[in-house]
Amino acid sequence: MSLAPVIAVVGPSGVGKDSVMRALVARATGICSARRVITRPEGEEGEDFDRVSDAEFQQMVAQDAFALHWPAHGLLYGVPHAIEEQRERAEAVLVNLSRSVLSQAQEVFGDLIVISLTADSEVLGHRLSARGRESMAEQARRLARAKTPLPTGLARVIEIDNSGPLEVTVDAILAKLQPESA
Ligand SMILES: Nc1ncnc2c1ncn2[C@@H]1O[C@H](COP(=O)(O)OP(=O)(O)O)[C@@H](O)[C@H]1O
Ligand SMILES: O=P(O)(O)OC[C@H]1O[C@H](OP(=O)(O)OP(=O)(O)O)[C@H](O)[C@@H]1O
Signal sequence span per UniProt (predicted)? Predict the structure, then answer.
């Protein structure tokens, strides 16, 4: 049985990864997204995710619960093996990943498409503060990571500017993803 590709959505904080993923899932039947496990503190909400403590996360690592896991922003992030069943059913599975984990993701998932979202730095700052999830200090730390480059050796990278309206971004991604999302 052939597995659907994994589509990693990456880019700086506030660029619109979660918004774009939600819009893609709403627009394209056949595209779903993987739910992450995060040690994000109570009170910091966001996309649909499973909140766990550091100890619970480490226990999950020890139990080999994750297809992929990484640290970022002082937090721990994991993508549970459930993504493998999603790949059997869907036409493509979206996942919000760190740019630092893309080479490993390509190794683990095999068929990996990277959607690299960009936006002007002024736009990023406004969006992060409008989202209001993090403190000002944490927003500044996240903005400092904005220009992190992608690793070399990725098989397929689609770079899309999300400075404009969300629908324009989603149309551009769907056009580039053909025939995967057709
Ligand atoms: N194309 C867009 N136009 C206007 N606002 C956007 C757009 N994309 C995302 N946003 C807004 O920017 C903020 C950050 O988006 P989010 O999806 O949380 O980004 P990320 O997951 O990359 O950090 C949110 O308030 C979201 O509603
Ligand atoms: O190494 P980077 O490419 O900079 O990515 C750092 C982290 O940012 C994102 O997480 P999250 O969605 O929690 O944060 P964000 O919404 O602020 O981007 C992404 O999934 C990584 O876990």
Answer: none
